[in-house]
Amino acid sequence: MDPEESNRKAEILDAALEVFAEVGYRKATIKAIASRAGLKSPALIYWYFPNKEALLKATIGAIAPAVAQVENAGMIFELPLEVALPMIGKLFLSALDMPKTPQLIRVFFGEAIHNPEVVRPLAESGPLLVLNLLVEYFRRQVEHNHISGHNPAALARAYIGGLLVYMMGKVLFPPLGEGAPPPDEYLNEVVGVFLRGLKG
């Protein structure tokens, strides 16, 4: 694909994400996406994407760098809690630095109730990867007697929950984020509370 085609494909993806975020996946039309992308004919979109679902899946590729970090995070399993929890937290919150994150999250929550199968790839490409990483990490911590009396699946969800609330306040429901400290400070507090709870 030459540079001009690559640029046009990127413009279509940006336009699709904007339209999905504004009206939802179900109400978005190829015609509206083409118009937002500045294309003279909607038919041009089919040169790059066979259908609307393919467009949505391609927009999910925007989080590929974060996904790659999760998939290569096996080294975390050997680290102590004091090191691993901040590392995983930073990985999760790093999505806030990606310009497309707010729109992706709006699409995700907008369609999660009515079209769960449509947004499942987005969940599997981001939050679920981090969640599964945490479950396995805590499972190994229990197995090696570093912590005891805890359910790894519950621990993972409790930790992710604290981070998810922060992210939602930043990109989806601003009142939830009012008065919240910067990401690094917030993460330090969450990790501190979590460690004290595990070792208390």
Question: Which features characterize this protein?
Answer:
200 residues; mainly alpha; Arc Repressor Mutant, subunit A; Tetracycline Repressor, domain 2; 10 helices; 66% helix; elongated
Distance between the termini: 57 Å
> What characterizes the major β-sheet?
none
Q: Which radius of gyration do the C-alpha atoms yield?
A: 19 Å
CATH architecture of the largest domain: Orthogonal Bundle
Quickly count the domains: 2
Number of helices: 10
What general outline do the C-alpha atoms trace? elongated
Beta-strand percent range: under 5%
Helices and strands, in N-to-C order? Answer: HHHHHHHHHH
How many distinct beta strands? 0
CATH topology-level fold name of the largest domain: Tetracycline Repressor, domain 2
What's the CATH class label of the largest domain? Mainly Alpha
Q: What is the average per-residue confidence, as pLDDT, rounded to a whole number?
A: 84
Approximate helicity band: 55-70%
Low-pLDDT segments, ≥5 res: none
Structural category: mainly alpha
Element layout with pairings:
Elements: H1 3-23, H2 30-36, H3 52-60, H4 64-71, H5 81-93, H6 101-112, H7 116-124, H8 127-143, H9 152-171, H10 183-199
Helix pairs in contact: 1-2, 1-3, 1-6, 5-8, 5-10, 6-7, 8-9, 9-10
Q: How is this structure best described in words?
A:
The mean pLDDT is 84. This protein is elongated. The chain folds into 2 domains: 3-50, Arc Repressor Mutant, subunit A, CATH 1.10.10.60; 60-199, Tetracycline Repressor, domain 2 (Orthogonal Bundle), CATH 1.10.357. The chain is built from 10 helices and no strands. With 200 residues, the protein is mostly helical.
